[in-house]
Amino acid sequence: MKKLISLCMMWCICLSMWAGKHYTVIVSLDGFRWDYPQMYDTPFFDRMAREGVKATMIPSFPSKTFPNHYTIATGLVPDHHGIVANTFWDPQRQELYKMNNLKTRNDASYYGGEPIWITAQKQGIKTGNIYWVGSDISVKGQHPTYYHVYDQKPRLTQTERVAEALRMLKLPEEERPQLVMIYFEDSDTYGHTYSPHSKETHRCVEELDALMKYLWEGLQSLPFGKDINLIVTSDHGMATVSADRFVPIKHLLNEKWYSLIDGNLPAQIYTKPEYRDSVYQALQGLNHVRVWKKEDIPAYLNYGSNPRVGDIIVLPDLGWLVEEGNKTLPGAHGFDPTYDDMQVMFRACGPDFKKRYEAPKFRNVSIYSLLARLLHITPEKTDGCLEEVENMLIQ
Ligand code: AMP
Ligand code: ZN
Ligand code: ZN
Fold first, then answer.
1. May I ask which residue range the UniProt record assigns to the signal sequence (predicted)?
2. Ligand 3 midpoint to CA 235 (Å)
3. Beta strand 87-90 with 357-358: parallel, antiparallel or unpaired?
4. Whole-model pTM above 0.85?
């Protein structure tokens, strides 16, 4: 029996080598700043850089969790996929979308574009997913082949998520996902609660480094371990903010002029049409913020064409927030993605990646193209492009 099993295993290995089939595991560590490996002791991320590719990735605007995870999944900027913020007003449905409100969050009709798991599945590839934004929502009527519901309690712990990814990859080849996506929230939680420069975040980053090492060793121990690519990256960075760096705006506006002010980083003002100019004029000359009518948002932010974007956007400078002071957490994100503090770590190693290679900075809209190339599938048209990232691949 044992002989038969090992013969079977050999056959599987030969078959996968013959087919040249590679697997890809992509991990998002929420709010993992590009320079955490410089600030803290991260031997595994340093090893990934030596044995693979190291880069800094630029998030899309606004540098928030839902918009950016869904951008990585679809290759579209938030303005184009429609999840334009963690919360936003939808003027067509007259409804406030909130990522924390199950009814709106699970309403698939909010989610435009095509997540990579659907593109892959349409082309016969199985996918596994542990908590990536959008994966437990029936976008285009489909889920990943294997997925978990984020709100189902108890939520999988960090080590259970690693074990679950390995379990998926241990499935018989015909059931096995070729793309596995895993999400971890801790670096974001610690960054917000204690700031990116705290001893708590320090410890969290080092624990995540060890967790990724554990994942990598688990992957390597599989019979086809050498055929697995591992990418570790994030949705946005984290900046230090403080209770004395607030720009109040409400006292400058007549309540009659707007229907909603949503968020403080950026603040989106949904104005009454006849008072749009009044709101805009009243906010001129403020320090530490930039104020735009949605059609005047600078082109590099790729934001403003979607009806869900507020009529007036107030974007604070790095380290500042709009409105209501005195009680704030010490870490925040949502700023202009061109600030270094909003940019994220990217590491990748495995059979398709160059070794010891530092890639130029790239935009997160191009991850979809990278994953499509790794899976040898035809991508949908997106805002990203393979040319931006193929330099990191062994051709
Ligand atoms: P942010 O406010 O941008 O810092 O959002 C971070 C939060 O997003 C995390 O703490 C999670 O609670 C939440 N989150 C992340 N992934 C998911 C998901 N797949 N489904 C629901 N909520 C999520
Ligand atoms: Zn996030
Ligand atoms: Zn966050």
1. 1-19
2. 9
3. unpaired
4. yes
